[in-house]
Amino acid sequence: AQSVSQHNHHVILSEAASLELGCNYSYGGTVNLFWYVQYPGQHLQLLLKYFSGDPLVKGIKGFEAEFIKSKFSFNLRKPSVQWSDTAEYFCAVYNTNAGKSTFGDGTTLTVKP
Amino acid sequence: DAGITQSPRHKVTETGTPVTLRCHQTENHRYMYWYRQDPGHGLRLIHYSYGVKDTDKGEVSDGYSVSRSKTEDFLLTLESATSSQTSVYFCAISDSRAYNSPLHFGNGTRLTVT
Question: Is B99 on the interface with A (CB under 8 A)?
Answer without folding.
Answer: yes
